Structure to design on (124 residues):
């Protein structure tokens, strides 16, 4: 979505998008939003930064002109990052990243992300 997920962005629980259908599905079906990105356009390493749940949609153009803002609760520890660049599933994830907010149906990837969550979740 055009910005890295480190620091405040990863801990904010806020994602902006123009993809209303994907955003509404995440909000209405109790979806999990996995934040994946890199520190800058020049970086070659990609990281899983955050897991967001309990999302709600707000419809209005933000400062970057996105139509939908999803706001939810972050569930990974502040500062968490898991390098996924060398994982066998990474080419599939990278392809999805180029498309912005997307649904992820690959159970193997989801299982790996969930394992990272279980080992690094915030106290609830």
């Amino acid at each position: 979505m055009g910005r890295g997920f480190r620091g405040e962005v990863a801990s904010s629980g806020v994602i902006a998008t123009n993809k209303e259908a994907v955003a509404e599905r995440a909000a209405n079906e109790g979806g999990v939003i996995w934040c994946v990105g890199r520190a800058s356009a020049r970086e070659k390493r990609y990281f899983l930064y955050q897991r967001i749940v309990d999302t709600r949609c707000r419809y209005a153009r933000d400062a970057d002109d996105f139509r939908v803002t999803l706001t939810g609760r972050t569930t990974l520890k502040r500062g968490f990052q898991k390098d996924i660049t060398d994982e066998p599933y990474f080419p599939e994830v990278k392809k999805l990243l180029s498309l912005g907010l997307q649904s992820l149906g690959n159970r193997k990837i989801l299982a790996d992300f969930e394992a990272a969550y279980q080992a690094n979740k915030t106290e609830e």
About this structure: The mean pLDDT is 85. Helices lie at 8-12, 20-28, 90-97, 107-120.
